[in-house]
Amino acid sequence: MPQPDRAIDPTAVAAAQKQMLSGPSEKDARRILESLCDPTRVKIIRALEETPLAASDLAQVIGRTRSATSQHLRVLREVDAVQAERKGNVVRYRLGSGAAAEVLRDACRAFDRLEEAS
To answer: Which of 14, 39, 98, 112 is most buried, judging by how many CB atoms fall within 10 Å of its CB?
Structure first.
């Protein structure tokens, strides 16, 4: 039985260690993934993939109240997955252009494969 502090394959261990995220990046990854842990937020990401929507229109699409929708949008804004754009009196929400939006968009697209498999 190998000792816990000795690698069986040091080269493989070194290569795997290079793939690990730094502490701050790991924390960001956790926050981004946790933001998707509610099915309502999955619906929001999917709804905003094609076009920006006002919160009231988004609420209608996902079947939630405007207040509940706004709370979910706040969580997604906190991780920079969603951005607000004001035009006159109307605020429309769209997916962001950064890494958080990309990760969540890709995760939601992966769920399509689950649906196809069932």
So the answer is: 98
